[in-house]
Amino acid sequence: MFSGNVKRKPLTATLFLIAALLLSTLFVGAVFGVRTVSAAENTNVGRTYYYDELKKSALAQKFYGIMEDMAKDGSFDTGITEYDLSKTLKAKEISDYLVNGSPKIPVALGAARDAFYMDHPDLFYVDVHKMQLSCGLQGDTYMASLGTGRADNYYTDYTVTSAAEVAQAKSEYEAAIAKAVEAAQADGADVVQQIKNANKYIADHTEYDDGALLDSHNGVQYDGYVRTAYGPLVKGKALCEGYAKAFKAVMDRLGIPCVLVAGSAYSGIAPLDGVAGYESHMWNAVRVGGLWYGVDVTWNDTENNLDKYLLVGDEFLSRSHISNGVISSSGFELIYPAIRPLNYGIKQDDSGFLFEDEAKIGSTQFGYETHVDAEDGIERKTLTLGISYEGKNGLELMEEGKYLIMRQSATDEWTYWTCMPLFYKENYEEGSGFEGKYTLFSINETVNRIQFAIVDYAPDGILYVYNPENLTDSHIIAMSAVYANEAYGSYVPAPYVTHMTPDEKGYIRSFEPLAVTLEYSDTLVYTEGKGNADVGVSVTGQHSNIADYVKVTDVRWDEATNKLSFMFTPSKYYAHNCEVYYFVPTNLVGKKSGKVPEAGSLSFKMKQVVCSKIFNDGRLYMQVFGQPEFVSASDESLNEFKGKDGQPIVGDQRSQLMLVVSEPTKAESDAMKDALLDENLD
Predict the structure, then answer these.
(1) CA distances from 522 to 117, 493, 497, 519, 597 (A)
(2) Is-above-0.85 flag for pTM?
(3) pLDDT band at 213 (very low <50, low <70, confident <90, very high)
């Protein structure tokens, strides 16, 4: 089956939900309009790429900052300096760790060490994973510090042993990397040529030290530099980790965004255990023109083909390389850049699909750009992708009985296939959704991957969706490479209310104390430094002063069930019409987003009392606490309650107590003023 990897679900409801999801995630901002903010290329995101992944943990960012301070002030050079955490950690956080076993501090420290290690190849002599946390009581005061723990120093094993050796090694390293940078920039090379030159320089000056591990087993001193940037650039020997770190170090100096990627690769060569297959490996991702590509200097060198793994796309790289974001026992998972599916300069994949993700064609700028959402003012990143097959867009293909379809995923599971060209045709003005030979897809940050196919029949489900039971391999004409979306996860929405008690869709008529419960889409956690006692509920309404007239008591936050409950007493102050109350938890944020949850709401309104007295041809409704409303400038009862068009005014427009006024003309106003003046004179 074509859709064999899609889990079976009840079709009627599921197809509708999947289609709605597809449409909502494809149209963020103005899909076919002009974006408001251009993508910034003036900062090297590669230098702090993994630090940026710590944004959900303020404590992890603080630990990362401490490591940067230690690098700048020479603490790492000495190898033994401890760092006092008394200004970083609160006493309650330390006691929670020591007494209650709270994982907050060690988890944050582990994440920070991993991110710092991957962002700083120049610190070739430092093993940040030797940095250990020490906590305890000094008198009645909780104390904490960072130090070497049981290790003798912070130094990378089998490298330097003293501050003097560090100074000498750093001097040699700076001289060596300056030569590599100069070679990369030779003859005014552009960005792409600089990448090629750096790749060649490192490969030409480095020997893969495949005997390093074997020799260490035979009693030969192991050289720790082979896993650092110092190994290739100074000593001319390295393992894959050293190649990758040296390449990143040169890219950092050139201002070209580059990151380290860890995982495994299939070499086909038997490692130490004699079994051919996947083994641990490290390579790079480098960004050119807003798109990321893979670079494996190690394999370029060892296979004697400098271009084979240079600026390659995921369609090729994924055949042999598998990334793994967990690089240490901390368990923190690094999120690597999304590699473009095609090699640099290539537009067409192996199945004949043409991808446009860089150029400006007509009024459409393809590729990644940021824009400010018109509704909430939040800056978001989107991908505008153009897809063509056989030189035709989706409309032209449909004329030949060929349908361009797409599916996407936010997790490991794909959505159902949908025919977007048909959607464009039937819901937008002619030409919208297409630019020349391309069908347009604007993809937001909730989409992880997207894939396209050509099939030979029209959608057979609701909302342009294909029934997976019918979409078999026999209907496939072609299937594209998978396109990974770099913008995925760049914006995480605030938690929203999934269920509220009472579950009222209309007005609540009672003004007695009411038990309210809110449940959210994301797990809520305490704001930094807060606890259960600090949790409250903020109440707002349509009228700015309404919070002065309501009561909120018995606020309870249940971490186990992710429920917030409280007693709420509404006010009758504005109840003659209607008052909508909005409830927002205080000192709670979403675990994924780190954002304040969205509000839950309830509407309250006074009861209406029906009077049985007949007035003309309708019943007279009396609304308790009713406020006068301007309904008409004339007495409609004299016109048998008919409007200007001669049609009867419906009951809910006339069956209420009305104050009927008419606006005087200027002449009438002047006459009244004159009359009042005359009366006063008399």
Answers:
(1) 30, 10, 9, 9, 9
(2) no
(3) low
